[in-house]
Amino acid sequence: MPRPAGRPSQTEMAVLGALSVEPMTAYAMREAIRDVLGHFWSESYGQIYPTLALLQSEGHVERNPGARPGSFVFTLTASGKGRLRQLLGEEIRIVPPRNGLLLRLFFGRTLGVEGCQGLLRTARDDARGRLAEYELLARKVSEEDRHSPDLPFQLLTISAARHSAQSVIAWADESLKVLDALESPADDPERSSTT
Asked: Where are the alpha helices (DSSP H) in 36-67?
């Protein structure tokens, strides 16, 4: 299978990285990427299977019969470990952010204070929910993988996610105070003259 020109290597990195933890079926990999990496990395399911086929054709993974008929377990080969190290050593590509919340807040004067407050409260609630998930995940990973050499690195990524959620909560609280001051009748001559 020829390698597509200009194909991003990020999917390869996710697939090879998942297999570096343990051999698994394509389905188990899809679930692992969704349930574990999904907290900080999204991967198109439609890319996992073609990437596995490509990596197999290049000798980076081996496909062996699984426990169930028709299932296959993929295992990382020595060349696959080398390819993973190569990919991990590449410069990180910074992708321009597309944050719908910040885009709406930037044009918040048109949306109005109440609309912006609603967006911020939703963002804060979502961040609180994610923070609770990350704390639960950290406990779960610590218990299940306490002897794994991967544990310190997994906890680093979970810690980053927790800090990010805490930052959103603090920012939303601060922003809500700013907006509360904007809608104060004492600060708005038109509103105070009509009341």
From this structure: 45-57
Chosen domain end from 63, 89, 115: 89
Beta bridge partners of 61: 76
Domain CATH number, residue 82: 1.10.10.10
Q: Which helix (H) or strand (E) holds 25?
A: strand 24-25
H helix or E strand, kind and range, residue 40: none
Do residues 38 and 157 lie in contact, with contact meaning Cβ atoms separated by under 8 Å? Answer: no
Q: Tell me, yes or no, whether 144 lies in a domain.
A: yes
Angle, in degrees to the nearest 10, between helices 26-35 and 10-21: 100
Tokens of 4: 């597509």
Poorest-pLDDT segment among 22-26, 31-35, 41-45: 41-45
Residue 185 banded pLDDT, cuts 50, 70, 90? low
179/108 same-domain check: yes
- Neighbouring CB atoms inside 10 A of 179's CB total 17
pTM assigned to the model: 0.70
φ, ψ of residue 165 in degrees (nearest 5)? -65, -40
Tell me how crowded residue 5 is: count the other CB atoms within 10 A of its CB.
5
As a whole number of angstroms, the distance between CA 121 and CA 143 comes to 33
Same domain, 105 and 129: yes
pLDDT at 181 over 60: yes
